[in-house]
Specification:
234 residues, alpha+beta, Beta-Lactamase, Arc Repressor Mutant, subunit A, 2 domains, 5-stranded antiparallel beta sheet, 5 strands, 62% helix, elongated, kinase, kinase activity, transcription, CheY-like_superfamily
Length: 234
């Protein structure tokens, strides 16, 4: 088992590295990783990533099936469940048989009514001042996850947490580039309309942003849309 686990860990590290090289979209990258987790974590049939806020708002970030989405909707509605618990209070939550579980009575009731899920394995991905995330594996039979599944699931959680941080940085960088390009287009429009140089055009955009209490990128987007209204309708 140790040799097999070492091979999976090596493959997982290579997957994360490839996501970085390919500049993969965050959601697509996370879905790829949890899909691989279902293939290798013993007993797992489905997987998902839960994001929860201190306000108790719960959303699904990635899922290999509809069931993880349904379970997160139930957690969001009732503010309780093992995936939320995994991050706020415990690093790992292992529900061996949901049918015999005494915690989270409303969550338990509606999951049993709406899905065939009976085993849940949840791992903390990260916790910050306002939110948390958990990686979750699910199975339809009770007692589905052996001890080595818990160990390998923790390895997946560590790699996915790293990948998520990396992918979010890439998204922020791409967003920053797109914003820069859009502001550049808006400057060009102002320069042409009012015969201003680049510095004067940017100062005008900045004043409009401050006076209207509107983000600079939103001012730029509105200006571009007004210049090219047909593009906005497409």
């Amino acid at each position: 088992m140790q040799n097999g686990c070492a091979v999976v860990v090596a493959q997982l590290a290579e997957m994360v590295s490839n996501l970085d090289r390919r500049e993969t979209d965050t959601v697509a990258g996370l879905n790829e990783l949890i899909g691989n987790g279902v293939l290798h974590v013993a007993g797992s049939q489905y997987a998902g990533i839960t994001l929860a806020e201190r306000s108790k708002s719960v959303t699904n970030v990635a899922a290999t099936h509809q069931y993880p989405i349904v379970l997160d909707e139930i957690q969001n509605q009732y503010g309780e469940g093992p995936c939320v618990e995994a991050a706020w209070r415990h690093h790992v939550m292992h529900v061996e048989d949901l049918g015999a579980e005494g915690r989270w009575p409303r969550y338990r009731r509606y999951v049993l009514e709406q899905t065939p899920i009976r085993s849940i394995l949840s791992f903390e991905l990260f916790v910050d001042s306002g939110s948390m995330a958990a990686l979750n594996f699910y199975a339809e039979s009770p007692h589905a996850f052996p001890d080595d599944a818990v160990e390998l699931g923790a390895v997946y959680a560590a790699h996915i947490a790293l990948a998520w941080s990396m992918l979010r940085r890439q998204d922020q960088f791409r967003s920053a580039l797109a914003s820069r390009d859009m502001i550049g287009q808006a400057k060009g429009i102002i320069m042409e309309r009012f015969n201003l140089d680049a510095v004067e055009a940017f100062e005008l955009l900045t004043r409009l942003s401050q006076q209207s209490n509107t983000r600079l990128i939103d001012i730029a987007r509105g200006l571009i849309d007004s210049e090219h209204p047909l593009k906005r309708r497409r």
